[in-house]
Structure formats: C-alpha cells, structure tokens
Design a protein that fits this description.
2 copies of one chain form a homodimer. Chain A has 382 residues and is an alpha/beta fold. Chain A contains 12 helices and 14 strands. In chain A, a hairpin with a 7-residue loop joins strand 13 and strand 14. In chain A, helix 5 runs parallel beside helix 6, helix 10 packs parallel to helix 12 and helix 11 crosses helix 12. Chain A starts with 14 loop residues before the first strand and ends in a 10-residue tail after the last helix.
C-alpha cells in the first residue's frame, strides 16, 4: 500500500463518488451547529427562502410552488404520486431502472391503476410506443418519468416525453431526483405538473428533506386525493400557506444546511455552473477509466453527467470488493452496481468534487489495479 | 430593556423552552460536521448502535426491535398505526389533546375503523369507560394512547391502560413521543405492541428521524397491512435486517447526532438521570411561576415533567405576544398554547436546560412582567 495520505474532503472524510448522500462543503454542514425553534420567525424565514428558491431553478417561480416533504426523495415521490393521481386515475409508468419500478410499486400499493412501458436499463423509452399507449387508452390520466435514472446513469428525454404527454392532454409527473439542479429543466417549455427531488443531490445539501415543485393550478385540484395524512402535499401546502409552519416537525438542521447549499449553488452559477462542473467531472472520469481499460455501459449521447456505470471487467484478477475496499482505504467511496442486465459498478460525479479530485481518483484507481495485478491497465503515461 | 446579555445555549442560540425541537448540546450538533455514505460500514455501525440502544430504554432489548422511520414523530405514528392495524382492524383511540385527535385523523384517512374515548384536555381517560368499551365491542383490535399529551403536558396512566387492554386480550399502540427517555416505561410490566417516538425529544437529538420500538412477535404478524410503501414498518425492518441498510436514503447527519445524543443520555444516567433533571426543571419552573402569580392548568398528580401549561392571566396588562417577544429578545423561547378549553401558554422543561437556566428564565420573566406593568407580580425577594 502506498504511504501517501488518503484523499479527504474539507472535513477529513472520504470523498463520496456516489449518487448521494454525497460530499458536501464544510460550510453547509457547519450551518447545522445551531438550534432553532420550529415556530421561530428566524427559521420560518430561512425555510421560506428555500421554498421560494427551488421553482426558480426550473424557471417556474410564477406558476409553481414548492411543497416540502420530510423524509427522503422517495417520500417526496410517494407524496407526489398519491397526491396528484386521484384514486380513479391511471398512470403510464416509464421504467428503465429501479426508480421507475419503485414508482410502479408505490402506485400498486396505493391502489392506483398503472400501465407500464419498460425498456432495457441502457435504453430510453420508445416515444412511438408512448404515443401508441396514450392514443389507445383514454383512461391514462398521468405519465410518470424519471429524468436521470440513477440505476444506470441514463438521461431520459423528458422534453420529448413532456411534449407527447401534453399533445395527448395528459399530465406529467417527474422524478428529477439526481438531475435536479444539474440538468436544465425549463418549465416554460416542458409541461409538467410536479417535479420531485431532494436536499442531498445536486444542490449539495445533507439528506433528510424531499420536496415537490408543483404547478399551482394542478396542486389546487388535488384536495382529497391523498390516502395518508403525512404524505398529503395539498394539506401540507395549505398549512404552510396559512401559518408559514410545517404541520409536523421539520428537519430544521437539514433545512438550514439546504439554505446554505442553495446559496453556494447560486454562487457557482446555478444549473449552468453546477452542471458544467459535473460534466467536466464526468468527462475526466470517463476518459480516464477508458484509458485504464474500463467500458461504460451507456452510449455517450445517453449518459447524464451524474453517475457513470462501468461494466465489470472480465479479468479474474479484478475482484470488485477488493477494488472497492482499497479505494475506500485511500479515501474514495465508489458505488456498487444495481443493473439487472450486466455485472457493473458505478462512480458518481456529483457533490463537492472537482477536477483535481477526479484526477486523484484516477491515479489511485490505477495504483490499486496495478497492485491487484489486473492485466488490462495500460502503463501510466510518462 | 435591561443591559444584560441575552441568555444563550453553548452555541449562542436562544434557549428553547418548548416541547421540541429543543436545545441540544454543542457536541450533538458538532457530530454532524462530517459526511458518510449511506451504504458505508462506518455509518451502518453507528445506525445499528442507535437501533439497539433504543429498546434498552424500555427494558425490551430481548423482545423488541427498533424500526426507524425517516421524517418526524408523526411519520412514525402514522407508520405504526397503518402497519400494526390490519385493514379490517378497529382502534379505540384515547383522546385528551391534539395528538390523540391526530391519530384518529390518520386512521380515518387510512380507512381503519375507530371508536373514540375523549376526555377534557386536563383529564386522563376514564378507565371504567375503557373497560366498558372493550367489553362491549369485540371488534376492537387495538387501543391507541398518548403517554404525555403535549397539548396540556398531562401524563396519561399508560400502566393502568395497558393492564386493562391486556386483560381484554387487545393490543396497545403507544405514542410516547415527548415522554420517551424521561418517563419510565418498562415493557416487562407494560404490555405494548409498539412505541413511537422521535430523535428530537428527551434523548436530545436533532429533528428528522422517527422510530417505532416494535414487539418482534407483533411486528412479524404485520406483513401486507401497510397501505403505503415508505411508511411500511414491516418492509423497512425486513430490508434493514437483510442488508443493514435503509430502503430509502436515511437522514445520515441526524442519525449520527442521535448516536451522540444517546451516549450523552447514558452518561446522564438514562431515564433516571434525564427524567430527574427534567423533574427538577419542572419543579423550579412551576414553583417560580406560581410565585409570580401564574396558575398551572393541571393538578400536580397529572403533570408530566415535560411541558407545563399556564393559564393566561386576566390582568389586561399581560399581552402574551409582548411577553413572548420580550423573553425571546432576552434569549428564552417559550411556546404558545394549544388548548381548546382555556386561554393558555406553555413552557417546556426538556432539552439541554438545567436548574440555572430555569432560574435565569424566572428572573427574566419577573423583569419582563414588571416592565409590562403586570400587577400580580410580587416584589422580588430581597
């Protein structure tokens, strides 16, 4: 093992090359070293600033409102599906990975009817098939799509999907989780009723808060749809509108950290700046891993700059757990695969990670592969 | 206004004399200034330690298991009710405040049948009436009770309720939220299927995590009961048992802070030490406020040492908002009332608050009342 010090974040932690929770700045975490009352004016002002900032990221500040949801991103997705889809509604669920499948499971449990269009994990949905399904079933009220399906890292064509859904007069519900803040999404051009995301992805906050950015007119139609108390976005919104306060204890520290993270996001230049850095990270990572002999799962035109899936090498000297553990010892946490189509692992490009970190990762990966005796690693450039 | 510096916590924040989120120690919050991967062994070990510590607090480590629930205490209560009560079950809901009413609303929305026994906010449930209701309706499968109803601060007689429920062969579900860790609860003597609480009450963590301490045999019977994905405690437990990991992103920083808070709870002597300090706080507060001329809502034998409700004085010079604001300026955050029976306000005794803080609060309250020209304030002792 090398004698160099492990890589570390500002707070001395391993760098998280994962789809989140991810490496956040010290200042984001430091914002949590205070206490606030949940009904206190200072906290309410911070929360209001957060809620108002989010629709601006999708150019929707005039027509959209944020409804926060305690818990995690999946809590926000379940809240979105069970609030927006009436009990008699029917959802066309677009699936090409675990998050699409999870939405179907949520709808099944909640007793909402579904139709599924499933494609392989490395393939986007087939627009012609969506068109055919919508044409053939007037009962489909909503379409559910995932912007970046973290299972593979694929970027789904939400603009084209939204146009098709609008042409058929149906409603789009979007799981934007790992894409929100990094991939552009302009609600002036993309017709969408609700967008679910969370605090611990590309805005670079800590985990504990989901949120749904809701088209105001669509949210107003959802009274009485929900089949739970805590996940009812209409009720949550009504209470916050009335009092500024949450119905149930909010994760105050998480929200204050998210507020700091949003300020840092704006300082970096919003979606263009943040997404640009991630695209640089992804390019450095992908080029470097290819130079080491790895293959990516996805064609470049399908790859989002969020998380990259690599096929497991066939060389028997490559044992993933050893690779993972040796990288972890040296300060880099990567991510196991979740594919059903192929053996794979994943490396994330998001969080407080910069070009130098990606290069340091590649140097370390080369070192580890060499120690493992993996044959396909080319010699280090002189 | 006095020239003295406002009271402040270790981190310079106003002292929260509220039912939570509350004042926590600096060390609890400082534990959050790191990042962890959610699948990382270090985080999983911390989470496991937290989950194993909680049943010990109710003497149930052999027969009970903790199932965490992202969100807040109410998320845990809804998860408990909708996981433990089958779709054909019926719940006798004991109500003497807002938290009992909230449980009924959760059950109504989830389509579970209820029977209600409601008493005034300053009165415990009537055991003879519970006995009569259980005798008369064999369809009642569960009884729901609140240990300390924060609406008033009343301590409900859970030991007697549990004995009655057990005698009738029914199951008890307990909302222990603001009592957990401060009021003794021994599951070797109190028959209860599930106990819901949260990170930000008497264990003195930060908000963002609920949990349900479940009797293992009862939890095993709940497969398929839940009507949501995210709030399904059976599914959550099964996944954590299998992999050590949460199904959906956990609030990592909140859990790490809770781990630190649990260590500080043990260092203070567990329930005896923590509950003892709160009882001292409550006694100092109540004696001092009575000396200032205030009246408590509850008879001493009904009062839990968690939060004390005071009747609004009749003196027209006493304007609650002025009292609240002046105290806030001087570093003390108190709590509005939630009673329907009488005008009132509340002062909490929990969190990182000590005898000296309660005395400082009383001195400040005396000063504020004097400035407001409230007539009933006796002269300060020489």
């Amino acid at each position: 093992m090398s004698q160099i010090r492990p890589a570390a974040s500002e707070t001395g932690d391993p760098l998280l090359l994962t789809p989140g929770p991810l490496t956040t700045s010290r200042s984001v975490k430091q914002a949590m070293v205070h206490d606030w009352g949940s009904r206190d004016a200072a906290f309410i002002a911070i929360n209001t600033a957060v809620m108002e900032a989010l629709p601006r990221i999708v150019c929707g500040e005039d027509r959209y409102v944020t409804v926060p949801m305690q818990g995690s991103g999946t809590f926000a997705v379940e809240a979105m599906l069970t609030t927006f889809v009436p009990r008699g509604g029917k959802v066309l669920v677009l699936i090409n990975g675990a998050y699409g499948s999870r939405a179907r499971r949520i709808l099944d449990i909640a007793g909402r009817a579904t139709v599924v269009h499933e494609t392989a994990e490395d393939a986007p949905p087939d627009l012609a098939e969506i068109d055919r399904l919508l044409s053939g079933d007037a009962g489909i009220s909503h379409v559910f799509a995932v912007h970046c399906e973290t299972t593979s890292g694929i970027r789904n064509p939400v603009e084209a999907i939204a146009a098709l859904v609008a042409r058929h007069g149906r409603r789009l519900l979007l799981d934007a989780m790992s894409a929100f803040g990094a991939l552009p999404l302009d609600t002036r051009e993309v017709a969408v009723d609700a967008i679910a995301a969370s605090s611990n992805k590309c805005i670079q906050g800590v985990p504990g808060l989901g949120f749904v950015i809701c088209r105001k007119e669509a949210l107003a139609e959802t009274a009485g749809n929900a089949t739970t108390l805590v996940l009812d976005l209409h009720d949550q919104h009504a209470a916050i509108q009335k009092t500024g306060q949450y119905r149930f204890t909010p994760p105050i520290h998480v929200i204050v950290a998210f507020h700091q993270a949003l300020q840092e996001f704006q300082q970096e230049g919003g979606v263009a700046g943040r997404g640009g850095r991630y695209a640089d990270n992804a390019r450095i990572l992908t080029d470097g891993m290819r130079a080491l002999g790895f293959e990516t799962l996805l064609a470049p035109n399908l790859q989002a700059p969020i998380i990259v899936t690599f096929r497991m090498p066939e060389d028997p000297a490559f044992v993933f757990q050893r690779f993972y553990d040796a990288l972890k010892e040296r300060g880099f946490v990567i991510y196991p695969g979740k594919l059903t189509v192929a053996e794979s692992f994943r490396i994330g490009c998001i969080g407080d990670l910069h070009a130098k970190d990606m290069r340091a990762f590649l140097d370390t990966a080369r070192e580890v592969l060499s120690e493992m005796g993996v044959g396909f690693v080319p010699a280090k450039a002189a």
